Every structure is written in structure tokens, then in C-alpha cells.
Amino acid sequence: MATGAAPDRPTPDGDTDAWWDALRQHRLMFNRCQVCQRPSLYVRAFCPHCWSTDVILEQASGHGLLYTWSVVHQNAPPFADRVPYVAAIVDLIEGLRLMTIIEDCPATELRDGLPVFVAFTDLPDGLTVPVFRPSS
Question: Each residue of 55-77: pLDDT tens digit?
Fold first, then answer.
């Protein structure tokens, strides 16, 4: 984390700026290697499968399935004022896993394989983060 960065915020850098810019436009992106053609998350300057630096951003469909989750009832600052929330891992249909938050779904309705769709939370400081909600 860069000096002076908020403890609850990621620090975009040259390798991730395009990803954060796309999120501000409400587009969820992932890397696609132009050598081995495999997708990857999180966005970085190289393919984690073949180490090629020939990677491009590709737009994800936004559809996925809930893989696992935890309902957080207690947390330390600066997260304490956000409880309860559902921390989750979603399997995107592109074959990637993304750590996220599930919104607008009672904990009693969460289940393995629950179809979800990306939504976006625009934060006051200009950061946009992907969250997921149950597909209707």
C-alpha cells in the first residue's frame, strides 16, 4: 500500500489503472493472454500461466455462480461500521474466481451455485468496486 493511502482502499498503479478506469464505467474486465489465450484475474502486466507480457483486457459477461461466502458480523476499524456484510468468492462464467461482496440477498437465501450478476458500487472518493447480486 502506498504511503498515505486509506487502509480500506486498493492503490491503483500503472498495471491496474485501465481495470479501475473500466470499473468506473461499470465494466468488469479480465486479462486475456494473446499467446496461450488463457484468461486471468487479477489484472497484471503478464500472464500468470505462460509469463507472456502480451495480455489485453477483455470484458467479462458479469454472470457467475456463488462459490463460497461468509457473513461477517464483527470486524475491526475501518470495516466495523459496514457489518453485517457477505464476503464471497464468485465463479465467473469465463472460468475465473473473484473475491467480492454479495448485496441485496438475505443470508438465508445464499447457496452454493446461486446465480449472480455484477453490480457496481461508486464510492465517494471516485473508486468503483464490483459487487454481486442474485440474478433475477
Answer: 999 999 999 999 999 999 987 87
The pLDDT-based confidence of 1 (bands split at 50, 70, 90) is very low
Is residue 16 situated within a structural domain? yes
Verify that 48 and 65 share a domain, yes or no.
no
pTM, entire model: 0.88
Do 87 and 133 sit in the same domain of this protein? yes
Helix (H), strand (E), coil (C) string for the chain: CCCCCCCCCCCCCCCCHHHHHHHHCCCCEEEEECCCCCEECCCCCCCCCCCCCCEEEEECCCEEEEEEEEEECCCCCCCHHHCCEEEEEEEECCCCEEEEEECCCCHHHCCCCCEEEEEEEECCCCCEEEEEEECC
The residue segments making up the domain with residue 37 are: 11-59
